[in-house]
Amino acid sequence: MLPTSKTEWRLLAEPPNLGQGEIHVWRIQLDRSEADAVRLKDCLSAEEHDRVASLRFIQDRKRFVIRRAILRHLLGSYLDLTARNVRLFSATNKKPFIDGQNGPSSIHFTCSHSADWGLIAVARNRELGVDIECHGTLTNVNQLAEICLSRNEIIEFSKFAEDAKTKCFFDAWTCKEAFVKAIGTGLSYPLKEITVSMQTNQPVKILKVENHVRAGERWKLISLDVKPDFSAALVYENRKTTLKFFEWI
User: In a structure prediction context, what are the per-residue pLDDT tens digits for the chain, which is 249 residues long?
Assistant: First the structure.
């Protein structure tokens, strides 16, 4: 299992100023009341309302409304816009972006969700990716490892006890997923071509990426302590950085 430093999450209702060289990581509780979902729904776009209507299960609809509305509120605060006026776009297999943003102060963001928790990371003029996964109950973790892990990772994975393999797998998975989000490809990128450190006595880092020379130097990788039974990771362009961790209330 990858080493994870204790993350202190500061409770806030509105984001502070986002300075150059800062990354703000937000932990989002998605298990909120129906009244919260109704209140937050007003800021969604017509396309987002259509997406809500297309979801079959009530819980999925509520989670979508909450995470999308909170994303809009956070980005609106950073951009000095109302949540409704944030123009979000995404292309197939590409991460979402804010229309009209460019230059040294442009806002970049990345988000992920699993079960009742989500993560949103925001920075200025810097590519980044975040991923969170609930461990749940996996009965085929060894099969998934063969599909998703590189040859060297599988060697390390095989050394773990069976009861530790689920966490080990998701620790590696979130690192890889955060990386492909940062470079903007999503899961279209073959995960077996990415190798991350999996030894408990090593700092977490990207060891090798096929066809990406010096990826481990260009990109910084950290594991995040979000909640028990969750794995999470953040990847960002490796230059001087101040990380700040918040929980939206």
Answer: 555 657 899 999 999 999 999 999 999 999 999 999 999 999 999 999 999 999 999 999 999 999 999 999 999 999 999 999 999 987 665 678 898 777 778 999 999 999 999 999 999 999 999 999 999 878 899 999 999 999 999 999 999 999 999 999 999 999 999 999 999 887 788 999 999 998 777 778 999 999 888 999 999 999 999 999 999 999 999 999 999 999 999
Q: What's the rounded Cα separation, in Å, for the pair 18 and 108?
A: 11
Q: Which strands form 219-223's sheet, in the order they lie side by side? A: 128-134, 230-237, 219-223
Helices (H), the chain: 34-40, 46-54, 58-79, 141-148, 151-157, 165-182, 215-218
Residue 247: count of CB within 10 angstroms of its CB: 16
Contact 146, 155 (CB under 8 A): no
Inter-residue long-range contacts of 76-84, CB under 8 Å, 24+ positions, other chains counted: 77/14, 77/15, 78/15, 78/18, 78/107, 78/122, 79/107, 82/43, 83/43, 84/42, 84/43, 84/44, 84/45
C-beta of residue 84 within 8 angstroms of C-beta of residue 191: no
Cα separation, 122 vs 78, whole angstroms = 9
Torsion from C-alpha of 245, 168, 189, 202, nearest 10 degrees? 70
Of 209, 179, 248, 192, nearest in space to 11 by CA = 248
Asked if 118 contacts 112 with a C-beta cutoff of 8 angstroms, the reply is yes
pTM as predicted: 0.94
Kindly report the length of the chain: 249
